[in-house]
Write a structure and sequence with these properties.
Layout: E1 10-16, H1 19-32, E2 34-39, E3 42-47, E4 52-54, H2 57-60, H3 62-72, E5 76-81, H4 92-111, E6 117-119, H5 128-142, E7 146-150, H6 164-172, E8 176-180, H7 195-198, H8 200-215, H9 217-220, E9 225-228, H10 239-248, H11 260-264, E10 268-270, H12 276-286, E11 291-292, H13 306-312, H14 317-326
Parallel strand pairs: 1-5, 5-6, 7-8, 8-9, 9-10, 10-11
Antiparallel strand pairs: 2-3, 3-4
Helix pairs in contact: 1-4, 4-5, 5-6, 12-13
Length: about 325
Amino acid sequence: MHRSRVPFVLDVHAHDIPQNFVDELSRRGGAFGARLEDRAGKTFIVHDEGYAYPLLPEFVDVSAKLKDMDARGIDVTVLSPSPTFFGYERDAGVAEDMAAALNGGTAQMAETSGGRLLGMAVVPLQDPARAVRELDRAVQQYGFRALEVGSHIAGRTLSEPQFRDFWRRVRELDLLVFAHPYYTGVKQRMERYYMTNLIGNPLDTALSVADVCFSGILEEIPGLKFFFAHGGGFMPYQVGRLRHGFSVRSESKVDTQRSPELAFQELYFDTITHDAPTLRYLVQQVSAEHVFLGTDLPFDMADVDPLATVAAAGLSQEQQEKIAGGNLRAHFGIK
């Protein structure tokens, strides 16, 4: 692993599936849309849509997670529950139970980590009133400073009117909003080669970024901080197309008179591009202040050596220090 020259490293994109939730999955898997299955002596989580992944120790075990962080030179990790359990397509009451279990389990992992693990809330966003209730509880009870949501809410965009009051509450709480691709099964023309993830996930993110930029939500709710996974998907490299379309097409001006590239400059992104030149381009587009280090661990699509990716991007020492952890230190109250 790359040994960092930066003084502090924070991973803001890493996932957990806490033990209490695993226990609930054993008991209520049918309602949650997944089950536990033994495969050659290893426990897998198998979802109703057919996809599966191993329940690795780093998802559930604090000591295993800390050991892995030490090996990668990571000081602090902000845990976000696996996005496979957003539950937006499920009954809202069930989704609220799922979120409560995930939030409680994540908080417990953080409490036993000696300050090296922090938590990020999830909510049943298909029901904004329930979502506000669970968000307030998670912030007040656990002290969470960030919120993880899907790139869409079972097909509804983040900017739709029914969610605006929820976003106002998020802004009042001054939370960082982590928008992660929402996987709900194989997509047409992406059935082969694992393209549902390789292409589908960054495409979902690109659509979500464009929606935020064209919708006027950042003008209506100033200071709302959206942070997008996987380097913003395909969107950072097509901002010029959004700008041009806005200048020549009336359809682009339905909800805002501000060019989408201005809204784009207010967004935040992680480093998970798997390519140093691409990361360098992203930093040039939005500045080092708007890029945060992430790994996507322990999933197999993770950047397993993120510090090496940052170091190889040809950035200044100051830029590397900001990206590696300096940008978020104050927000998460880390001394």
